[in-house]
Design brief:
The complex is a heterodimer of chains A (364) and B (506). Chain A contains 14 helices and four strands. By secondary structure, chain A is mainly alpha-helical. Chain A has a two-stranded antiparallel sheet with strand order 1-2. A two-stranded antiparallel ribbon of chain A has the order 3-4. The two termini of chain A are 21 Å apart. Chain B has 506 residues and is α/β, with parallel strands linked by helices. In chain B, helix 16 links the parallel strand 19 and strand 20. The longest helix of chain B has 16 residues. Chain B starts with 5 loop residues before the first strand and ends in a 9-residue tail after the last helix. In chain B, 46% of the residues are buried. The chains are: A mainly alpha (364), B alpha/beta (506).
Chain lengths: 364, 506
């Protein structure tokens, strides 16, 4: 019966996600038809392009960043904290880590660890500002993290100039931090049929997911965090120090956000320049929602998201606006929230009825 | 009046909810043109019964007859069609609309929304002496007038049978008298009133017939001319009810909890707990009596470390608790049965075994080091389910799927775990069925015999008097009196609670 129930709660999540996906495909098909394109052939083209080896590598690399970002968001979500600032946290963290990595020529091994640590500390500290504001002054973390994103952008723009932490990239108008030397790089993983490499630090994302699952589900700290998210009043009565939890969860969320840029920084670009990807922090919010703040769910959600992003690139060759994919993504998100709520409500009612039925039988 | 057909007949009505039977085998016959009172304790099933009669709930078994015809009520509009109207305990009026607008809302087809409706409202108002002015704004009106609008709303829709759910709960005595005069008027016009209440004096004053409901079923019919309030109360409570009582005293002279001059202020600076001093010894249950909202909740939260104490000291054993966190206090052996179990006692969406961990997440058998000991917590949850008779198919169902009584038994079992020295029990048997109530009292008595000190807060005066070794009365945050539970009556305690009689009754 135990496995029965577990299966049920997982089943609910999976059913909700699948229904949402089907709904999104239907919506996209309608939009495509209305715009005069043939939906089946469009999906076929996307799928064919998406399964090419180069696309697979790009999808996995992109998904790793999405995954870490969504994980960071999920830590907050698990206790009803909205860290909207993952975007600023990871960019600032990546920038400073890149600068440190370029400047300090440490031996291989140590150098990578130091770079990652710098990123984690910067991300955590940047999120920590919002946490401190919340527990001491009652400032909503939603507002403060959004504002910290803007401030982060400003700080990066200030530091990323030739006289400070950056230099002109040879042969272009781009400017970036001094590239990290070969002793600080993480080798990639080859994928058959592609010249591109899967970032080595994709494994870091997997590790972070496993750690997230373990901490949340198996430790006392995770229990306190979940309890606070489920009912703050009950958690406080049970002895949880709500303010302390806010600070820890927020800093932890920021620390994980600091990891978001690492696979690319140490595996591909080796420097933080003006064209370093932005906006991953916001995408992470959607992916965390889609993945129900569950590390396995988030993994599927980030792969789906990255796949859609990657395969949409073929659309422009067929004269189809690639923004069509944004519609798919938005439809998935909107519907998953609604569908999950419905599925969950029905499930809960079934639970109650089942409990009543079993008790009725026991009494008879 | 008795020659006509009965207005309402209920036969064998049974209604089950998950985990509980709210009503079973209810039989009531209401004669037309009478005021028929239905009395019972809170939670006896009166409200469910009325919801069934008004079509808001469907009975699992039984038949409803209205004016002699079998009625299958699917919704309130079915009930309205058959001439049944309901006046809810909580008014359902839009404050910023006029009386007229409120009355016609949803019944626009009857007499329009203009002059026709206004005329009809005046007619009804005059006919039954309700004194309702159609063009006043509802927000300008007092509680009594609002209730008359609710009654008028129901009459406007053509009701001949009115259900009034605890109508006097919100009224002051003068308004109650006015309401009763209105009810007499309705009766004179041949309408039938079903009057739900647990205030026996009022029932005896206004009713023509009385039906008593206990534990979900009809247990007696009474004639108000021949029955006394005391007899009615006995019928309501039932003689087989568990009696809260302590046998021999187990009070020792070892103090467990000592409060000295404790003051707690709210955000506005008002002292919600004002200079409270008390001592609870090993094996002693100290009851605090008071009208709700006189500082009981804040006192409890201050002892638990959830609210800051402004001045004074709280000591457990010999140790000063100042600066200790709630968690630390719990680890020192303070058990806590909170007043609002849904807000403070449970994670409703989580399984029972995780709820076993709640509040004990730093202690064996729930944890090993920094990890949750799932096996240990689950085993101990099984033990609580067994020992405390929690009716559940398993420990993996969510807490929300249990009935209130079973949730409470789980909480009591959890808080009694790990040999607490002090138990803070706020309304430990509120909203639980009789069986659970008796079981919870048994557990309190047993733990007391083993030396547990208990701070008992309750609104149930019989429970307070029966279960306490010492009684204190709280009024506006101050302990204003002391009473001997062996000799005091609920009436005397009640007047102490309202401040009518200052001082001690010993």
């Amino acid at each position: 019966m135990i496995s029965n129930l577990l299966a049920k709660s997982y089943a609910r999540t999976v059913i909700a996600a699948l229904v949402a996906l089907v709904f999104a495909i239907v919506v996209t098909s309608i939009v495509l038809s209305v715009s005069g394109f043939n939906p089946p052939s469009t999906f076929q083209a996307m799928f064919d392009f998406g399964k090419e080896p180069d696309s697979v590598v790009n999808t996995v690399n992109r998904a790793a960043a999405y995954y870490l970002s969504a994980l960071a968001v999920a830590i907050g979500f698990r206790m009803n904290l909205f860290n909207i600032g993952v975007d600023g946290q990871y960019r600032l963290a990546a920038m400073l880590a890149a600068a440190a990595g370029g400047a300090w020529a440490l031996p291989a091994g140590l150098r990578q660890i130091v770079i990652i640590l710098v990123a984690v500390v910067v991300g955590g500290a940047w999120a920590g500002i919002a946490a401190i504001l919340k527990v001491t002054r009652g400032v909503s973390e939603v507002i403060s993290t959004i504002m910290l994103n803007f401030i982060g952008t400003g700080v990066i723009a200030f530091l990323l100039s030739p006289n400070r932490l950056a230099a002109k990239v040879a042969g272009s108008n781009n400017i970036g931090t001094k590239p990290i030397g070969s002793s600080g790089r993480v080798p990639g993983i080859s994928y058959p049929g592609s010249d591109l490499k899967i970032y080595g630090l994709v494994l870091l994302a997997v590790l972070a997911g496993a750690a997230f699952w373990f901490v949340i589900n198996r430790t006392r700290f995770g229990f306190d965090l979940r309890a606070t998210g489920l009912s703050q009043s009950a958690a406080v009565a049970s002895g949880v120090d709500a303010k302390r939890m806010v600070v820890i969860a927020m800093v932890l969320s920021g620390a994980v956000a600091g990891l978001v840029g690492m696979p690319q920084l140490l595996g591909g670009s080796y420097s933080y320049s003006l064209d370093f990807p932005t906006g991953i922090g916001f995408t992470g919010i959607g992916i965390a929602l889609l993945g129900r703040n569950n590390p396995v769910g988030i993994a599927f959600a980030s792969l789906l998201w990255a796949f859609l992003d990657q395969s949409s690139q073929i659309l422009e060759f067929n004269d189809i606006p690639k923004e069509i994919v944004a519609i798919t993504q938005a439809a998935v998100l909107l519907s998953v929230v609604v569908v999950y709520e419905i599925v969950n409500r029905v499930g809960r009612r079934m639970d109650q009825r089942r409990v009543a039925a079993e008790l009725g039988e026991a009494a008879a | 009046m008795s020659t006509t057909r009965p207005a309402v007949e209920l036969h064998g009505i049974t209604k089950r909810f998950p985990g509980v039977v709210a009503n079973h085998d209810i039989d009531i016959t209401v004669a037309a043109g009478t005021v028929h009172a239905i009395v019972g304790e809170n939670g006896a099933g009166k409200s469910t019964l009325m919801k069934i009669l008004y079509g808001m709930q469907r009975p699992d078994e039984g038949t409803i007859k209205v004016n002699g015809e079998v009625a299958d009520l699917h919704s309130p509009s079915d009930a309205i069609t058959r001439g049944i109207g309901m006046v809810h305990q909580h008014f359902m009026l839009a404050d910023n609309l006029t009386v007229l607008e409120n009355v016609v809302l949803g019944a626009e087809r009857l007499h329009g929304i203009g002059g026709g409706a206004r005329r009809r409202i005046r007619e009804i108002s005059d006919q039954y002496g309700l004194g309702v002015e159609p063009d006043r704004l509802v927000e300008e009106l007092g509680v009594g007038a609002r209730q008359r609008i609710e009654i008028l709303k129901v009459l406007y829709r053509g009701a001949r049978i009115l259900i009034l759910d605890e109508p006097t709960a919100v009224l002051v005595p003068q308004e109650v008298d006015e309401l009763f005069a209105n009810l007499q008027e309705l009766k004179r016009e041949g309408l039938t009133v079903i009057f739900i209440s647990h205030k026996l004096d009022e029932v005896l004053k206004v009713a023509d017939a009385i039906t008593v409901i206990r534990r979900g079923t009809t247990v007696a019919s009474a004639d108000p001319g021949e029955v006394s309030a005391r007899q009615l109360a006995e019928l309501m409570v039932g003689s087989e009810l568990p009696v809260p009582e302590l046998r021999e005293s187990t009070v020792t002279d070892v103090p467990v909890l000592t409060l000295e001059d404790v003051t707690v202020r709210d955000a506005t600076g008002r002292a919600v707990v004002d200079g409270v001093s008390l001592t609870i010894h090993e094996g002693e249950i100290l009851g605090i009596a008071g009208v709700e909202g006189n500082g009981q909740a804040e006192l409890v939260e201050a002892i638990m470390g959830m609210l800051p104490v402004e001045s004074g000291s709280v000591r457990l054993g010999g140790e000063d608790l100042a600066g200790r966190s709630t968690r630390h206090r719990r680890e020192m052996g303070v058990g806590f049965i909170p007043e609002d179990r849904h807000r403070h006692g449970l994670l409703l969406e989580s399984p029972l075994w995780e709820n076993r961990v709640l509040g004990h997440q730093t202690r064996s058998p729930n944890v090993k080091g920094i990890l949750i000991d799932r096996a240990g917590a689950r085993r101990d949850t099984e033990r609580i389910v067994e020992e405390y008779d929690v009716r559940t198919p398993g420990i993996d169902v969510s807490a929300s799927s249990l009935s209130g009584g079973n949730q409470q038994k789980l909480i009591v079992g959890r808080e009694m775990s790990g040999n607490p020295k002090l138990l803070i029990a706020a309304h430990p048997t509120r909203g639980v069925d009789v069986g659970a109530q008796s079981a919870i009292w048994d557990h309190l008595r047993r733990a007391r015999a083993e030396g547990l000190a208990v701070l008992l807060i309750s609104a149930d005066l019989d429970e307070l008097i029966g279960m306490s070794d010492t009684l204190r009365v709280i009024l506006r945050g101050r302990l204003v009196g002391e009473a001997d539970p062996a000799t005091i009556t609920p009436d005397e305690l009640g007047s102490l609670m309202t401040g009518a009689a200052e001082g001690s009754v010993a």
